[in-house]
Amino acid sequence: MLRFDPDDLYALAREAHVAGLRIGAHAIGDVALTQLLDVSERLHREHPLGPRHRIEHFGLPDAGHLRRARELDVIAVPQPVFLHELRANDDRYVPDALAGQVFPLRAMFDAGLTVAFSSDGPVVRELRPLAGLRAAVRGAYVPGQDVTLAQALGTYTRGGAAAHGDPDRGTLEPGRHADLTIVGGNLFDTDPQSWPDIPVHGGVPADAEREAS
């Protein structure tokens, strides 16, 4: 169900774009993606100096959507856990001809998109990021659309920083903010099935902050 008339959507997007605000618009479906990419293309043409924008979910893209998103520098923000939680709905409602477009994560990377994964909490039941990692690496709707662990981790670090417009985070390099998450195990040496149960510790302890200062 489209929420906006194309001209109304463009007017709203233009107001944010010219003010320097990054837009995160939601789209699942080929028609919705086309509408948003049309808006992005018009913004780039008429106001080329604005910020990067993103599309939340980025569901059911075809090759044309992927190509256009790359050309327009749009960031894709899919939720890998949808591959698990929404699979029954996809089985029931998605035509066989579109099965390859059900969150085709590898195709997004192959197209050269900047990708940031998220949980979509609290809409979904499973909020643990490591469950999202497992879905991305082992849960593709059709064969060949899984991604590597390194790619998936990058979406939560470099991709997340890009989606938030924060160039000072996302990698461990001199001069970057030490925004760290500590995982209680080596994911590269662990069966993906057990990833969601690995403890995760976030933040920097107060003592460490005092020592750093």
UniProtKB/TrEMBL annotation:
SUPFAM superfamilies: Metallo-dependent hydrolases. It holds the Pfam family Amidohydro_3. Residues 193-213 are annotated as: Disordered. Residues 4-193 form the Amidohydrolase domain. This is Amidohydrolase 3 domain-containing protein.
